[in-house]
Write a structure and sequence with these properties.
Two copies of one chain form a homodimer. By secondary structure, chain A is α/β, with parallel strands linked by helices. Chain A is about 30% helix and about 20% strand. The radius of gyration of chain A is 22 Å and the shape is elongated. Chains A and B meet through helix 1, helix 3, helix 4, strand 5 and helix 5 of A and helix 1, helix 3, helix 4, strand 5 and helix 5 of B.
Chain lengths: ~260, ~260
């Protein structure tokens, strides 16, 4: 009977103090933290977020695993083979492994592929996911933009894979979040301009970190190759929230307006 | 010059240890915690989540505010007038107020309306939002269901306001999250059955709490009036993730399959 657990632990959007109490407790307790890298030469953002809260843990292994930034399965295969071998060896010895991801482990994260394979490779191993603050809510928090209220709807699209139907989506949804806008920002700006939506959008990169950048004039980014950790939020001006379009004064004509109690 | 801040603080989906370090630090530091209630007779879930982490803070005020569960602006208006008066009095005395919400403060929360009004009522007051783990990611974590990977898209709909176009939405999106399914569960089950999607859905209520309930056979809930804090997640079987549909063995014919390294 193997009592090891494979944890998928989200460390949140960037600020170390946006980690949850549970993620800190688990990362301090496990014998192995698995840390994905984009390349051997670029530090792990997830680990930079977690490290100030975890510090040194005597005897704990930090297992760095490199996954190239590519959609090509041929290039990803050797990296995953190595990762499965390294993680598997430890789990089979009964050592729990916590695989960290920035943001939440189930939202466009490296952990998702590991999760899918793990259930087949290690059927006896317990799997536990520690949800985290996702950029889905951290980015709107930065700009004080409500995501949805009342009958409003939210759509989340990875911009890398096309924004051609953005106008259609905006007809059906009140807030649209475009993830991974980094390399396709010129296309995103063009699509928003075509639909006369550029004024309704804002751009945020590296939200909640010391390098956070917020841009309201998206046209200024037209020619930029933006940061990978960036997002565009498009929110309709006419909201459909519980009280929207029905101001207090309008809802009760003749009575004091809502501002009368100030 | 007034240095008071109005905080919108999310306390996460239900488990106290899914609060962030920042939310705990702010709630321990502010002179006033504002706590929304659905009724004077029902304890605040948000406060039940926060209290174990905050404990007693000498001199700190816990300001309970009741907002009836209704979509009727006539019934909400007196509650909001009272809330604005109570919060405003404290802010004007220079006291920072942290308004707590379960989940994230910008996702279908009572705080959104307060945010909208606050910028007009108290233009000199700083507003800060502390994002939190939302049920959007906490519920999929419970059932180990990826939300989106690669080119996949996510749609979030409040079921209370209709699920008639669920089939359309599922044609365009890979994962659909139905919030607030409590009172409309029979309609949701009927819509999923009509579209032959009932097998692809699961139901979770009070995720991450001691009363968590997970149901995979949604038909068994056909006649239930379910809990308010419940959600249905519908995920397509055929995923569009980065490596989906392109198994390692298929991607590199003739070479070792991905499972060969086990």
């Amino acid at each position: 009977m193997n009592h090891a657990t494979l944890y998928g632990v989200g460390v949140g959007p960037g600020a170390p103090d946006l980690m949850t109490l549970r993620s800190v407790a688990i990362l301090k307790a496990v014998p192995v933290i698995a840390i994905p890298l984009r390349s051997e030469y670029v530090p792990s953002l997830a680990w930079e977020i977690a490290r100030p809260n975890i510090g040194d843990v005597p005897g704990q292994e930090r297992l760095f695993l490199t996954f190239p930034m590519t959609k090509d399965p041929e290039r990803l295969r050797p990296a995953w083979d190595e990762a499965f071998a390294q993680i598997g060896t430890r789990l089979e010895r009964g050592l729990s492994v916590a695989f960290i991801t920035e943001g939440d482990p189930l939202v466009y994260s490296t952990f998702i592929y590991l999760l899918g394979e793990s259930r087949q490779r290690w059927p006896e191993i317990k799997i536990e996911i520690v949800p985290a603050v996702s950029s889905i809510t951290a980015v709107p928090a930065v700009t004080l933009t409500p995501l949805a209220d009342g009958q409003e709807r939210i759509a989340i699209l990875p911009a890398t894979y096309g924004v051609d139907d953005l106008a259609d989506v905006l007809r059906q949804f009140d807030t649209v979040i475009l993830m991974k806008v980094g390399s396709v920002m010129p296309t995103v700006v063009a699509a928003l301009e075509r639909e006369d939506l550029v004024e309704r959008a804002f751009y945020v990169s590296k939200a909640t970190t010391g390098q956070q950048r917020v841009v309201h004039d998206l046209r200024s980014l037209r020619n930029d190759r933006c940061d990978y950790f960036s997002m565009v939020v498009v929110a309709k001006q006419d909201r459909n929230g519980v009280l929207a379009g029905r101001q207090f004064a309008a809802a009760a004509p003749g009575s004091d307006s809502g501002s009368g109690s100030e």
